Amino acid sequence: MKKKILGLLIATLSYYSCIAAPTLIDGIYYNLNTSDKTATVTYKTLYNESYYPMEMDYTKFIIIPSKVKHDNIEYTVTAIGDSAFYRNWEITNISIPGSVTSIGKYAFYGCSVIERIILPNNITEIKEGAFSGCNFL
Q1: How many CB atoms are closer than 10 A to CB 126?
Q2: Do 56 and 28 touch, CB atoms closer than 8 A?
């Protein structure tokens, strides 16, 4: 019985040690995948207590780079994750690089004053509600 509990505890700790908190690089939060050197733009916390953030982390003009560097490792930005910019009412313009192919669910939900988004031609996936509430697009 003790071996089963110890095995379960080790498995659980191993799982959670693989999940890293988002990394802030040049004012944008990313989930970094060290195995394939890719980065996904993400919301600032790993587990949101609420889908209604009260602080605005982004303002006005956002330029997402095609590559970011962290701890001397270069990552290619390939996705805008679920809820990445959720309800950031200050953003007016955003430029997304050609390396990004996917935009997650509710990525820009409620970004009500966005007037312009520059999307690359190679976007292959835009998930549910990605631009819901973007009234000025």
Answers
A1: 15
A2: no
pLDDT in tens, 15-58: 443 456 788 898 899 999 999 999 999 987 644 455 444 445 66
* Distance separating alpha carbons of residues 137 and 131, to the nearest angstrom: 9
- CA torsion 15-46-37-127 (nearest 10°) is 110
Q: Which tokens go with 7? A: 């095995």
User: What are the angstrom distances between the C-alpha of 71 and each of 25, 36, 63, 68, 87?
Assistant: 11, 15, 21, 10, 30
Q: Is 88 exposed, middle or buried (0-12, 13-18, 19+ CB in 10 A)?
A: buried
d(CA 78, CA 66): 8
Specify the DSSP class assigned to residue 97: -
Within 10 Å of residue 112's Cβ, how many Cβ atoms?
Answer: 15
Q: What domains can be seen in the chain, in order of their start residue?
A: 21-126 (3.80.10.10)
- For residue 66, give Cα distances in angstroms to 37, 47, 84, 96: 12, 25, 16, 8
The model's pTM:
0.78
